[in-house]
Design brief:
668 residues, alpha+beta, 11 helices, 37 strands, elongated
Length: 668
């Protein structure tokens, strides 16, 4: 039988397995209080299977690996439970040695390629390793972080592990381990280094052959071992299975061996902040304190601001044209060029009455001496003598020309009114009159990028709070603080490109830190009043005529208890009805062709028909059975009870794991 993913009730399978594991306890408690026996079984089950980790170690691993036996709930009996595929004692094994420079002087990878329990291939890294990444390694000059080369874990078509040359951008989660970055980094973070190396190797293997599946991981000293199976060999389950001496921790009724193993495990894990021992020892329950998780980040922000301005003295910024203009105080006053030879006309005009011997002003308008046509821009050129020297003043239409003769002997020579195709003025080097259509001398404005580096510390409130304690920190993906302890690891400096007027490469030691704090809260949880109220409701509840009647006990604001009788209608549910006592489920089946093969051949050779069915249990939604493609309903939505069928299936599986040969009695 199969359980569909969408049932949402994987605990049912666990419960059936639990019934197989529990008979010893059930019989032991059979003569006592049934309620107490149920509580004892529940407590034992929670202790054995109360987390995803224990479900994996107690059920999943024994069912997929021959090296880990399954045991009964009371732990007194062990049995082999591998059902599907052959496993390997050393699917992948990675061993390391540390050199005097702190580099990894040796990394050896052993592989069992055909899953027969024997090592078939060994790869040794031919150079010292200075840095470890999630998917590769870095080799530098020993003891330094110079002359580095980068490599990515790879595997050939036969899944043999090797290294391929890579760029640093191809690697991720890298960190330095040699003496140039600190002392004793590998030994201080041995588990992390082993897991990263082993994870990179196993990922490379699985990338070329996805049938390889890792079923368990164990660390011992400077070696990490991956247990696995090849799904391509799942046609049979060889034997024998399991450990040859799981009782090694017990001798003559003494558990001294187990106690010694426990002490050794405690000492080994005490220095690892990620170990189960450290996690439990530093938990709020072990510290007898309560608190809340607080997560925050410290983020480095780089902003590039482009500033536009004029660096030359006397220049002024014209924002509309984004240029620097020479103003009237400039040593280069605006000067209109003479007639540029373009089409148009011209005429001369005499000295006007507004100009005296000392000078004066003259408005350059139309009709000074007629209106020359054909040009685009009308200009004027005035020549006069002052102190015997010729002075030339240029001006343009609709402007006022200023004439000055301090010596008081101004002598008019001529006034010339003409047209040209465009405005032109004389500008100094570096300036042009084209940017403003001949109306000024201008050059492009100066642009400067200002780089601002700020840190947005969103953890400041927790850093300064004496009730908060740093639990974990990741800096750019590298664990720098784990389970209240520094790891002595740090991320490699990295660079990012920011663009303003010009691109800028900015390099920093870190960019983002993600932290988790545990902040103590005042007081301790006290469920005494809650328990008293629950007991009152539970002990007084009863169903009468379609209603639930119970006595509620509550506490007022002044601390006094109040008793209240409550009647709650149950609607269509009447006393004795079990319609709400379960999750509504349905059973479906789907036709398939069963041609499984084994040592004796395939099923089609010794069965009349290859037709078979897969059965599924699905959680009903609003009374409707959610059948899949090709499925038909066997049992409609309701409180299904197929315990007898499940027990029979488990009995068959139990028998299948044993040698079905009659050893006594008559044979048929």
């Amino acid at each position: 039988m199969k359980w569909s993913r969408d049932t949402g009730r994987p605990v049912r399978v666990l419960f059936l397995l639990f019934l197989c594991f529990a008979p010893g306890i059930v019989h032991a408690a059979g003569s006592g209080d049934p309620g107490q026996a149920g509580n004892d079984l529940g407590s034992a089950a929670v202790q054995r299977f109360g987390s995803p980790g224990t479900v994996n170690s107690e059920i999943s691993v024994p069912m997929t690996s021959r090296d880990t036996p399954m045991r009964t709930l009371d732990g007194n009996k062990f049995f082999s439970a591998q059902l599907l595929c052959p496993s390997s004692r050393k699917f992948i094994e990675v061993s390391i040695q540390v050199g005097g420079s702190g580099d990894l002087s040796q990394i050896a990878v052993s592989q069992d390629l055909d899953m027969d329990g024997n090592t078939d291939f060994v790869f040794s890294v031919p150079f010292p390793v200075s840095g470890v990444c999630a998917n590769g390694i870095i080799s530098c000059q020993a003891g330094t972080w110079g002359n580095c080369s980068y490599y990515r874990w790879s595997a050939d078509a036969s899944a043999r592990v090797g290294l391929a040359t890579a760029a640093i951008s191809d690697l991720g989660g890298c960190y330095c381990v040699n003496a140039s970055c600190g002392s004793n980094l590998v030994q201080g973070n041995l588990s992390t280094v082993l897991r990263d190396l082993g994870g990179g190797v196993s990922s490379a293997v699985q990338a070329v052959n996805r049938k390889y599946a890792v079923t368990d991981v164990k660390e011992e000293g400077s070696t990490i071992t991956y247990y696995g199976q090849d799904a391509g060999q799942c046609s049979g389950s060889p034997g024998p299975y399991g450990s040859s001496s799981p009782e090694q921790y017990y001798s003559a009724g003494s558990d001294a061996g187990l106690a010694n193993a426990k002490d050794a495990a405690q000492i080994s894990q005490a220095g690892d902040p990620a170990s189960y021992y450290s996690l439990i020892a530093n938990s709020q329950a072990a510290q007898e304190s309560q608190g809340d998780y607080r997560q925050c980040s410290i983020i480095r922000n780089i902003t590039v601001t482009t500033v536009t301005g004029c660096s030359s003295p006397g220049d002024s910024l014209d924002p509309s044209l984004n240029g620097c203009t020479i103003n009237d105080l400039s040593p280069y006053p605006r000067t209109i060029k003479t007639h540029d030879g373009g089409s148009g006309g011209s005429c001369y005009f005499p000295q006007p009455g507004s100009i005296t011997s000392s000078g004066g002003s003259l408005y350059i308008g139309n009709y000074l001496c007629g209106d020359p046509h054909g040009g685009v821009v009308k200009n004027a050129r005035i020549r006069f003598l002052c102190g015997g020297a010729q002075v030339i003043v240029y001006s343009r239409e609709y402007e006022t020309a200023a004439l000055s003769c301090p010596s008081g002997d101004l002598a008019w020579i001529e006034g010339w009114y003409y047209t040209s195709n465009a405005n032109h003025i004389s500008c100094p080097a570096g300036y042009s009159d084209g940017l403003c259509n001949g109306l000024c001398c201008m050059k492009p404005a100066d642009k400067t990028d200002i780089i601002d580096d700020t840190v947005d510390n969103r953890c400041l409130a927790y850093e300064t709070d004496p009730q908060c304690r740093l639990r974990d920190e990741q800096s750019d993906g590298v664990h720098t603080f784990n389970n209240y302890n520094p790891t002595t690891l740090s991320p490699l400096s990295s660079c990012r490109t920011f663009t303003g007027y010009l691109p800028h490469d900015v390099c920093r030691d870190w960019w983002r830190k993600d932290r988790t704090y545990i902040c103590k809260t005042p007081g301790r949880y006290d469920f005494t009043d809650t328990k008293r109220r629950v007991d009152a409701v539970y002990s007084s509840s009863s169903a009468h005529s379609g209603s639930l009647v119970y006595t509620d006990l509550s506490k007022d604001a002044d601390g006094s208890w109040k008793t209240e009788s409550v009647t709650s209608p149950l609607g269509a549910v009447t006393q004795g009805s079990s319609s709400d006592s379960c999750d509504q489920a349905c059973k479906t089946k789907k036709l398939k062709s069963d041609t499984q093969a084994g040592k004796t051949g395939n099923k089609a050779q010794y069965q009349k028909s290859a037709a078979a069915y897969d059965f599924f249990y699905r959680l009903c939604r609003n009374g409707v059975c959610p059948t899949g493609d090709g499925e038909e309903v066997v049992n409609a939505c309701g409180c299904l009870n197929d315990f007898s069928e499940a027990a029979s299936v488990l009995s068959v599986l139990n028998a299948a794991g044993k040698d079905l040969i009659c050893t006594t009695g008559a044979r048929y």
